[in-house]
Amino acid sequence: MRLYSSNAMNSYAWIDKSLQTIHRAHWHRSPRPIDGKAGPVITIAGQSVINFASNDYLGLAGDPRLAEAAIAAIHAYGTGSTGSRLLSGHRPIHRELEQAIAALKHTEDALVFSSGYLANLGAIAALVGPKDLILSDQYNHSSLINGARLSGATTLTYAHCNVADLEHQLAEHRTSYRRCLIITDTVFSMDGDLCPLPEILGLAEQFEAMVLVDEAHGTGVLGQTGAGAVEHLGCTGQPLVQIGTLSKAIGSLGGYVAGSAQLIDYLRNRAPSWIYTTGLSPADAAAALKAVKIIGSEPERRDRLWRNVAYLSEGLRQFEGVRLIPSESPIMCIECDRAAEVVQLGTQLMERGLFVSAVRPPTTPTSRLRITLMATHSFDDIDQLLSGLEAVLRCP
Ligand SMILES: *Cc1c(COP(=O)(O)O)cnc(C)c1O
Question: Whose CA is nearest to atom 6 of ligand 1?
Fold first, then answer.
């Protein structure tokens, strides 16, 4: 018995070794509790800090109108949706939300998942299988990469936003497979740049491929009506599978696929992460529905966000020797040489009341300070960030 249990212990000893390796590389991370309501100023461990690490681009996650909508839905339906959508978990609010998302995205229909991650897993696994080919941007989000794995399709990676490399791979491999799916973030989450969507759609037509785009950081943020990067890049109405999240600019929780009515009907019958999971909670659905309506009726929120982006870009351009990663979004990154350095910079900024993410491998290939802006930041908030950055970057 004793021998058995010590052997059993030994089978887990590798975990401790792995953790030690993670610590040695300065890759170790743990979550920090944040108190109070979501917003541009938050409280971490009793300290009030300006929040430059949120995905709540429009400042809707703390909006009282979303909270009221969520509370009303709880009173009407209860807290859990109690079953999968196809069995007992489908509520009228789910369909209302899907129709509102389709209107926002200028698509025929939409399907709501319990998270953006699950939307990517389910859509990719439903669209392609072992006889098929996926071409995936090198910097794609984890949910696209794991969706590709789940599908069983052959997955080839093309160089980041490199249309020539994508074309080369299509020319070389496309005819050896049945279906082909090109997958890419529209706004790259850890860099802030945009994919070359018109060129990708051109290649997709030429080589008979489908295109799936992840609009997690685009929806509500980019485009004339807030539809996303697809609208911003002039690709509205093109044949596309659009994935997104309800947890970023939309300020709630959940994910969606938007596209043709046939695509959505097919996914309702074939996407495993939609069929075999519990429907989105009524509160999350109601908050998201309210947010989608606000995005439609208050374009000034988007204007304020972009004014803040322009203001910070202008300020950062004044700094000499700072390596800014090219960005066309509210995500702005300053590249650093070493993981230990970026962690230290993050700590120094935090001491000054500025919450900026220190992102490092394996999340990204290089270490960086990642700043995200919100519509609800004031110019004064951004001025404080600029003076904090100036101080810590000058004397690291
Ligand atoms: C956040 C994110 C997701 C996941 O969305 P969740 O709703 O948080 O699961 C998917 N793709 C990208 C690019 C993201 O940034």
Answer: 116
